[in-house]
């Protein structure tokens, strides 16, 4: 395999990791808002979160480019005020992957939150726990299996994300060429199928590793949460 | 001191209660579905009543008129739920330490762990506890919150007699430490032992409320309390511990002997004497296995629909209740003013019915 | 010096080799990013950090030129291509013209080509079929693909009986054979304009120049492209 | 007939029990954490014991030796869980109808609904029930499964006395319909009333097992049962209902009168008489409010560490237990062979302690 | 808007609907296997289910083509034995959308199953319910919110699916040209952005409608499942 291919593998793992890790707190927060909030505009937020699922990935990529590109309103502010450039950088690939994976992550966490018995939260409040403490000490540990599920879905999705990423950050080897972009590139040339297949295998291996690890972790956490001794 | 005035509707059920719970234990007594848990939840802030006002120790917790509604975690109630509601992801020790953890208080768990016999369970998770064990942990968790008000919803229902007997003195000590306790129970024995005040609910309404000694000795209150559980509470003082294991108590009507009671000579006690455990005799009986014979005067006789009669006997300034058959009441000519002897077995007054005064 | 080149996907086979040659010769590095011409053009509009753009379609280059995104005077048509009819497996060569019984050749199978509204190879193919009077006889059998390579794949797998692709796409594909080339006049001339962007570095100009060098042209020809 | 032999380990607790439950009610009695629920779960098939054999009515439900393990739903047990475990998505009516729905049996819910007072709750969901209401629905749901074995884990703990008194006769009828019932309870009153067999557990071991009348009248069993709850069960027959509301019962030792008992003249009954409700007298006492005076002979006296003594009195072929102080036992000269009169208040025998024989 | 555009809208709605409806029973079954099964190969099944998330959509499309194309082993059998042809048909678009949406659907349902208290299932068994009856009468109603969540995720994903669909069934206006394909086509031509934007708006409107409907439904179902009166 070529250097560029290995670079793509490594880049994809990094991008997927950061996309997952960075979006997790936001995902938990939004999931909580959607599950328990009673505010005006909840439906709008819900719709926004789902948008990347509904739109063809290329469109999401274009929208990101329009907003976060150097010419875009957000992109310009980020660049001028903080010196952060996303478009055509690997950081942009992180953003694209995070956005695309966000609906999956939020839904998994939200389902977990909705399954928490509000009576336990009430019990915690009677013991003096503020809303935030109730969340941190009761809700959060109880939804750990959902968070793991959300994170692994996000990671897997990020590993496979192509359309939005290539549109937002292009397909520059060594800089923004993720695994799917590299696979795509190989599929574009005669006789490239073999190389593409090797990359697919690597991609699947990495994601499966994460998947199996998450299952083992989730099982352990689930046993705890169900109140059984580990 | 806790003042509760609450009205609330659920579907077909309407709650409309008002009572004052002074320092000590206020027992909420009533049949299943009469609204006990609902009242307790309103005090804890878990049920927002349609209207009303709840004041604890001068602090307004809820007032529909002025829109006050203190959030649950600021109310500092220790709530022992009817279902244990332990945190499944925490061990027993972590459940017990929970209140300390969230409030940042340092609490010594040892006495509560010892009293509730939880030492061997500390590392377990709630899923691996028996019903009674879980309930004990729930009690411990609430006690360790060092609450300003303690709400206990049938805390002992899942426990055996021996365990109850171990836990009750602890609750008494809390009562005496002036933490107001709202105590829901079906067991009049428990209520009589603990309660300073009794509030009887029926279908969402208060049908009787008042000082425990008064309510329990009032024949008119018996239907609301349940016949079998009727009985009076009299004051006593430990006069001495005798060699054969009996303790002599001084009452207004004379001495009585009960099986060894822990307590120093001179200590004041409350002794509940169930109406059904009292036998009446016109003359002074001889040659009986019952040691305790108290002379008194019948102050009221109440006959109901059934074959029974409830007789109130004045002993000095206190009252005893006796349940007899109407046939016996007639045969003995029991009516107000008649002098009688109340016969009372030592062993009939169980440990559970003796509380620190 | 390192430059970034945005190039139409169909150039990948040849351009990778050309860039390697250029690198060896000059010591400069060309980082190549391939995608559909439309997407690349839009990315350049949004400020992509690119020095050279090689498009498969003149119209997108026109858009960039009109937008003032190209360095003046650097645009030139560097390559051409032909349009061919390909078949699955070995096929009898045939003259592609108005007499060709394309429908019969399909025999109920599918004709794969790029999306006729948007993919350049599809646009040219549609134009050619219409001008040859063949479109109506096969319109119902056409399957349009996301890009021209996907049309090659469909024919290669035998999912489509025939396909219309660039001549360069037919090179090096084992499972397909060229039936015939579309006559010159049946469609607009297929050209690949290249240009340096406004922010393009000097090496970009050198790279564009190099594309017309004999060595590069030999590489392109070997991959089925035409050179002017 | 149910044969249970089970060994199982959880963490620090080990269960090792073997007993036979004949037709009728077998009470599992024991302190919190002694293993009662675990035994019941093993019978239901919800806990797979490490080893053992469970046979119900000749049908092997579990046998670790031969690898038999009948799936839960084929065991046809009606299980009233210690926690109600109602289906939250179904209404009360749907919860009650559940067993009929899955087994395709047509069941008439009306009698159970009426007995448990569930009429007004049928359209509700479990989330809107009080603790006692939920427990009643759970009882109804298990009863309506028309099970071959009924497993009841503290079914009445959440209920008030009045409600218990309504439900117990129903359980008795089931017992008499020959459905074997495994009944877990902390309340010896309940146990004594219902049980034909008693199995006492302590820390996962059977410490006493046998026919209820035997175990309850055995002074040696008292420590295991708990002092306060000691008492014997005697057989009786309804001799007549009298005008003043009392029912006359014929016992081996003579007539006794109790407040009206529902039942036809001639019907056989089991009457539990708590040891602490019996007063003993050497001579025949006069002028007392107690109507029931039964002559008998002391058959055993057991004194323990404490100040009390337990006296077994033979009345014809049956036995009564009386708890007296050691002081009285000495004063009255109570020892085996001495003739005494057992005095027993009519009202002390509560409805809850009278079961159909 | 052109007729072809309206056709694309209508086709996408149909494809998404059928992809969701047809995969739902399979999704519930697989979710149950993954949540409760203890069989050998559970991890393999889990990996397979996640595959479409991990792989770039184009790769999934190719794999579908290889398996379900006219020349593919499965495709040939389906064609010869049942006369079912998927490649280049709208039915193939349904398959592609269903496969791509499958991991999302399964994960949502699985989380819901894992949140069901096994004690309730045990209670049902003691009342005579067989494993299947326990599932149908207890588990299934209790996981209804998860099923709704899974279905709406799948529908939204199907509305936005592009890469696998176009690779598997290509773009045949009126037959396989879904909304994302149409949007993609418009984006490829200079000046096509306006038309693409109009289609995006329609796509979002349809998916949002489904989303809001699902929320309302889920809320009602959730209240039931939580045992509160409606
Ligand atoms: N959400 C609700 N909707 C309708 N009715 C309700 C709701 N919650 C409680 N109830 C009814 O209110 C009444 C009082 O309930 P509550 O739980 O306060 O009773 P309780 O006195 O605690 O009974 P128990 O001793 O059985 O626990 C009951 O009849 C109950 O059915
Ligand atoms: N999963 C488990 N892991 C470890 N110990 C357990 C587990 N389940 C039960 N135990 C222990 O087994 C013992 C018996 O439990 P069981 O539930 O049978 O008691 P019980 O007699 O029903 O008590 P109670 O009257 O309190 O309900 C208890 O000490 C309990 O802590
Ligand atoms: O080279 Mo293209 O723009 O993919 O047809
Ligand atoms: Mg209650
Ligand atoms: Mg138990």
TrEMBL record, chains A, E:
It comes from the Bacteria. GO terms for molecular function: molybdate ion transmembrane transporter activity. PROSITE patterns: ABC_TM1. Keywords: Cell inner membrane, Cell membrane, Membrane, Molybdenum, Transmembrane, Transmembrane helix, Transport. It is a multi-pass membrane protein. GO terms for cellular component: plasma membrane. The chain crosses the membrane at residues 15-35, 47-69, 81-102, 134-156, 195-218. Part of the binding-protein-dependent transport system for molybdenum; probably responsible for the translocation of the substrate across the membrane. This is Molybdenum transport system permease. It comes from Paragemmobacter aquarius.
TrEMBL record, chains B, D:
The keyword GTP-binding does not apply. It holds the Pfam family TOBE. GO terms for cellular component: membrane. Residues 287-353 form the Mop domain. Residues 1-228 form the ABC transporter domain. The keyword Transport applies. GO terms for molecular function: ABC-type transporter activity; ATP binding; ATP hydrolysis activity; molybdate ion transmembrane transporter activity. It comes from the Bacteria. InterPro entries: AAA+_ATPase (IPR003593), ABC_transporter-like_ATP-bd (IPR003439), ABC_transporter-like_CS (IPR017871), Mo/tungstate-bd_C_term_dom (IPR008995), ModC_ABC_ATP-bd (IPR011868), Molybdenum_import_ModC (IPR050334), Mop_domain (IPR004606), P-loop_NTPase (IPR027417). Keywords: ATP-binding, Cell inner membrane, Cell membrane, Membrane, Molybdenum, Nucleotide-binding, Translocase, Transport. This is Molybdenum ABC transporter ATP-binding protein. The gene is modC.
């Amino acid at each position: 395999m070529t250097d560029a291919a290995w670079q793509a593998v490594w880049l994809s793992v990094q991008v997927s990791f950061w996309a997952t890790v960075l979006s997790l707190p936001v995902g938990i927060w939004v999931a909580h808002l959607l599950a328990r909030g009673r505010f005006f505009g909840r439906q709008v937020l819900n719709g926004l979160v789902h948008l990347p699922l509904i739109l063809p990935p290329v469109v999401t990529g274009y929208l990101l480019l329009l907003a976060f590109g150097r010419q875009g309103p957000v992109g310009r502010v980020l660049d001028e005020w903080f010196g952060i450039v996303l478009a055509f950088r690997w950081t942009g690939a992180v953003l694209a992957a995070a956005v695309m994976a966000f609906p999956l992550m939020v839904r998994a966490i939200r389902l977990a939150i909705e399954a928490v018995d509000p009576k336990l939260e009430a019990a915690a409040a009677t013991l003096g726990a503020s809303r935030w403490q109730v969340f941190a000490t009761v809700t959060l540990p109880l939804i750990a299996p959902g968070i793991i599920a959300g994170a692994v879905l996000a990671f897997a999705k990020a590993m496979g994300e192509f359309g939005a990423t290539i549109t937002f950050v292009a397909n520059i080897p060594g800089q923004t060429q993720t695994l799917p972009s590299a696979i795509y590139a190989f599929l574009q040339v005669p006789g490239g199928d073999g190389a593409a297949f090797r990359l697919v295998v690597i991609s699947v291996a990495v994601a499966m590793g994460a998947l199996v690890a998450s299952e083992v972790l989730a099982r352990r956490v689930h046993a705890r949460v169900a109140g059984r001794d580990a | 001191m806790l003042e509760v005035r609450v009205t609330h509707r659920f579907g077909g059920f309407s709650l409309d209660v008002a009572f004052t719970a002074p320092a000590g234990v206020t027992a909420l007594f009533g049949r299943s579905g009469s609204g006990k848990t609902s009242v307790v939840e309103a005090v804890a802030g878990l049920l927002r009543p349609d209207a009303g006002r709840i004041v604890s120790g001068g602090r307004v917790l809820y007032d529909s008129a002025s829109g006050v509604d203190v959030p649950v975690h600021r109310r500092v109630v220790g709530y022992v739920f009817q279902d244990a509601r332990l945190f499944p992801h925490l061990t027993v020790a972590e459940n017990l330490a929970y209140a300390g953890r969230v409030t940042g208080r340092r609490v010594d768990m040892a006495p509560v762990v010892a009293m509730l016999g939880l030492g061997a369970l500390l590392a377990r998770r709630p899923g691996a506890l028996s019903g009674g064990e879980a309930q004990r942990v729930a009690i411990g968790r609430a006690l360790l919150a060092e609450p300003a008000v303690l709400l206990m919803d049938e805390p002992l229902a899942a426990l055996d007699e021996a365990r109850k007997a171990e836990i009750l003195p602890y609750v008494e000590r809390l009562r005496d430490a002036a933490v107001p306790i709202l105590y829901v129970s079906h067991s009049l024995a428990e209520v009589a032992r603990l309660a300073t005040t009794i509030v009887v609910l029926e279908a969402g309404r208060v049908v009787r409320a008042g000082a425990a000694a008064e309510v329990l000795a009032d024949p008119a209150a018996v239907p609301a309390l349940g016949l079998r559980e009727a009985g009076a509470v009299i004051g006593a003082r430990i006069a001495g511990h005798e060699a054969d294991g009996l303790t002599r108590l001084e009452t207004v009507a004379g001495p009585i002997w009960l099986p060894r009671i822990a307590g120093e000579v001179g200590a004041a006690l409350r002794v509940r004497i169930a109406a059904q455990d009292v036998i009446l005799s016109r003359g002074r009986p001889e040659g009986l296995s019952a040691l305790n014979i108290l002379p008194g005067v019948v102050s009221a006789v109440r006959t109901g629909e059934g074959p029974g009669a409830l007789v109130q006997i004045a002993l000095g300034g206190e009252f005893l209740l006796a349940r007899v058959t109407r046939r016996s009441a007639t045969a003995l000519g029991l009516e107000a003013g008649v002098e009688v002897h109340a016969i009372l077995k030592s062993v009939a007054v169980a440990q559970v019915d003796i509380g620190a005064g | 010096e390192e430059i970034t080149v945005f190039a139409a996907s169909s150039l990948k086979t040849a351009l990778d080799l050309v860039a390697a040659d250029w690198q060896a010769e000059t010591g400069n590095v060309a980082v190549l990013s391939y995608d559909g011409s439309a997407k690349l053009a839009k990315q350049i509009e949004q400020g992509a950090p690119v020095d050279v753009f090689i498009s498969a379609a003149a119209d997108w280059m026109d858009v960039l030129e009109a937008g003032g995104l190209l360095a003046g005077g650097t645009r030139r048509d560097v390559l051409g291509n032909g349009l061919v009819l390909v078949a699955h497996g070995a096929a009898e060569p045939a003259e592609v013209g108005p007499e060709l019984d394309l429908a019969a050749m399909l025999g109920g199978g599918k004709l794969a080509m790029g999306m006729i509204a948007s993919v350049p190879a599809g646009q040219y193919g549609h134009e050619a079929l219409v001008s040859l009077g063949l479109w109506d006889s096969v319109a119902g059998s056409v399957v349009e693909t996301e890009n021209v390579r996907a049309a090659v794949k469909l024919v290669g797998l035998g999912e489509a009986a025939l396909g219309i692709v660039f001549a360069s796409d037919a090179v090096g594909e084992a499972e397909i054979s060229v039936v015939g080339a579309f006559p010159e006049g049946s469609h607009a001339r297929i050209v690949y304009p290249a240009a340096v962007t406004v922010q393009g570095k000097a090496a970009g100009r050198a790279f564009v120049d190099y594309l017309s060098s004999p060595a590069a042209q030999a590489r392109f020809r070997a991959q089925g492209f035409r050179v002017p």
